[in-house]
Design a protein that fits this description.
The protein is mainly alpha-helical and 128 residues long. Helix content is 79%, strand content 0%.
Length: 128
């Protein structure tokens, strides 16, 4: 399974990046609505999960290309956090029926940082 992700890492990373973009562009009227308390918790979990997966896929690209250096890890970290911020900003100004949310950005960033931490721990264990 790990080898599959590594072999297909670039395709998976680019596809997931596009899927997140499409989901974030979707007009608000097409997003299911529920009780705001339920949505608040679930929505943040979804944001964190999407960006955890995004960062993980891009980390697999590093593994595949044997580019696991501090520089490239930092590029992935800053790139994924910036992508989450850019999407929230675009929701505020460009996507109809959507609004940017700082808490969504925080959830996005949490997902990125969690994936980065997990990847770092796994990488450290493999180097023992």
């Amino acid at each position: 399974m790990k080898n599959y992700f590594i072999k297909k890492s670039t395709l998976l990373a680019l596809s997931w990046t596009l899927i997140i973009f499409i989901l974030c562009c979707t007009p608000g009227k097409f997003i299911p609505h529920s009780n705001w308390l339920e949505l608040l918790s679930f929505d943040k979990l979804v944001h964190a999960s999407m960006f955890f997966i995004l960062t993980s896929f891009w980390n697999f690209v590093l593994i595949r290309n044997k580019k696991i250096t501090s520089f490239y890890k930092l590029v992935i970290l800053i790139g994924c956090i910036s992508y989450g911020g850019l999407l929230e900003w675009m929701q505020s100004f460009y996507f109809s029926g959507r609004s940017g949310d700082w808490y969504d950005f925080i959830a996005n960033t949490f997902g990125v940082l969690l994936a980065w931490f997990v990847f770092r721990k796994i990488n450290n264990l493999q180097n023992l």
